[in-house]
Amino acid sequence: MNFNKLAILGSGSMGTAILAGLMRRGVDASEVVASTKTEATASRLADEFGITAIATETNSAANAE
């Protein structure tokens, strides 16, 4: 794929499933960043997939126009 970074906003069940699919398709982990509500989930995603994962309580989409 030709992109710099892919962001997954919200890494619950659906976001994690999408992330797993991307990794199976060969997307480089360095090209992915994911956000989730808790530090524990962010840590698990980083360990499991080797991606950058951040915990945020802010709903990013709510502030979009």
Please summarize what this structure is:
With 65 residues, the protein is an alpha/beta fold. It has helices at 13-24, 39-49; strands at residues 6-9, 32-36, 52-55. It is globular and about 30 Å long.
Structure, described:
By secondary structure, this protein is an alpha/beta fold. The chain has one domain. It is built from 2 helices and 3 strands, in the order βαβαβ. The chain has a 3-stranded parallel sheet with strand order 1-2-3, with helices on one face.
Total discrete domains? 1
Distance between the amino and carboxyl termini: 27 Å
Strand content: 15-25%
Count of helix runs: 2
The average pLDDT is 86
Secondary structure blueprint with pairings:
Layout: E1 6-9, H1 13-24, E2 32-36, H2 39-49, E3 52-55
Parallel strand pairs: 1-2, 2-3
